[in-house]
Amino acid sequence: MATDQSRTPTDEDLDTLSRQLGRPVRDVVEIGARCRQCGSPLVATTAPRLSNGIPFPTTFYLTHPSVTAAVSRLEAAGVMAEMTERLSEDSALAAAYRQAHESYLAERNAIAERTGVGAVPEIDGVSAGGMPERVKCLHVLAGQALAMGPGVNPLGDETLERIAEWWTPETCDCAGAWDHSAPVPERDRSRHTKTQGFGDEAVEAKRAERARRAQAAKNEDSTAEGEDARA
Ligand SMILES: [Zn+2]
Fold it and tell me: Residues 48, 111: contact at Cβ < 8 Å?
């Protein structure tokens, strides 16, 4: 069945993104990729300059919980270090990865232009995910591969291939992947939103949960420090 694959985010899309992430999204200017079956967002495209003026280099952000969790499994298995090592040994791969970096920058400039954000010279030449020399975040690479299609980022394509056991672009498990009837998160509950865009939500959530447990295990008289430990 054909679904609406429009990049223009609807109010419903923005609510879905907030439910997927468990926090309100902001400065989402496009839907970078959608589920081919049901049209749910897979990737949020964030403005290269946030409405508070801060330059924001991470344009494509994976939001679908099934995809982010699968990519987190790869990261936990040490795939980033493996890929970074291959970049130093395989000059063809390194060249293709550098081209992916250039494509990322070009697409970000195009998005800035078509969404009226305008030039963001502060992040000229700065992409994301460790590009062009290293691999620091597979979510960024997979997000680019989903948003820009196959053949753009070789390691993004490879990331999608390597999570195929858990999720592929052809499958739709959106119904059970997040709570579709949950109240939409309305307020920014985090003091670290500026940096969350660069990391992995699932990992950060686990880290926060560990911090909470560790804090609970300790005596509970230092509540101020406990607050600080929460992501
Ligand atoms: Zn779906």
Answer: yes
- State the residue range of the domain holding 115: 11-181
Mean pLDDT, contiguous 10-residue spans, the chain (231 residues): 78 95 94 95 96 95 96 97 97 98 97 93 95 97 97 98 93 92 73 43 55 59 41 36
75, 200 Cβ separation under 8 angstroms = yes
Q: Is residue 153 part of a domain?
A: yes
Cα 35 to middle of ligand 1, angstroms? 5
- Residue 195 within any structural domain of the chain: no
Q: Which two tokens stand for residue 29?
A: 């200017």
Give domain status of residue 189, yes or no.
no
pLDDT of residue 189: 47
User: What is residue 180's predicted lDDT score, i.e. its pLDDT?
Assistant: 93
Whole-number Å distance, alpha carbon 173 to ligand 1 midpoint, is: 6
Do the beta carbons of residue 140 and residue 58 sit within 8 Å?
Answer: yes
pTM, two decimal places: 0.79
Going from the Cα of 190 to the center of ligand 1, the distance in angstroms, rounded, reads 28
Between the CA of 174 and the centroid of ligand 1 the distance, in Å, is 4
**Tally of domains within the chain:** 1
Tell me the CA–centroid distance for residue 188 and ligand 1, in Å: 27
Q: Look at residue 204 and tell me if it is in a domain.
A: no
- The rounded distance, in Å, linking the Cα atoms of 66 and 19 is 13
